[in-house]
Amino acid sequence: MTISPSEDGGFVLQLSRRERALLRTVLELYPLIPASHHRLSRTADPGQIAADQKLLEEALTAQKQENHRHLRTWLAGEGGFKPRRGGFTLTLNGPQLDWFLQVLNDVRVGSWLKLDCPDERNGRPVHLTPANARYYFAMQYCGMVQSLLLQGMNGDA
Asked: Cystine design at 126: which of 14, 93, 96, 118 (Cβ 3.0–4.6 Å)?
């Protein structure tokens, strides 16, 4: 996968057929982070902020449902993937790029949660099983794509 700036200030990703298939497979995992994972406060008394926490979860659920609908429509319409010799291009403008990064981040962090929050530096290694291996791949792949896009945004493309 390579990335280059587009004329409208966005980016063009060039993907092989296999890379496109992998990206589509990973995106189909969305959404993975449960709304209840997000907290207004980790230190406040849960009883005192219960109503506000419920509003947060409802808003996040609605946003994820809208993102999910948009993603399904986007993927059903080939998601902006344009055939090119040997593969595909994917062009993302500013708002599309922001949305795309949000979806990738949800899959990356949600996969990390599904893997029980591994942290190699603190003695919590990844315990791969046939049931969770796809989440490890998705976490790593989304991180790589996010890094490429963020490098491009910083002018390092």
From this structure: 118
- Contact between 30 and 103 under an 8 Å Cβ cutoff? The reply is yes
On whether the pTM is more than 0.85, the answer is: yes
Domain residue ranges in the chain: 2-153
**What is the helix (H) or strand (E) element at residue 89, kind and residue range?**
strand 87-92
Residues 6+ positions from 105 with CB-CB distance below 8 Å: 142, 146
CA-based torsion, 42, 47, 52, 58: positive or negative: positive
Three-state secondary structure call for residue 16? strand
Residues whose CB is less than 8 angstroms from the CB of residue 119 and which lie 6 or more positions away in sequence, other chains included: none
Bond into 31 cis (ω within 30) = yes
First to last CA, the chain: 12
Interacting residues of 89 by C-beta distance below 8 A, sequence separation 6+: 12, 13, 14, 15, 81, 82
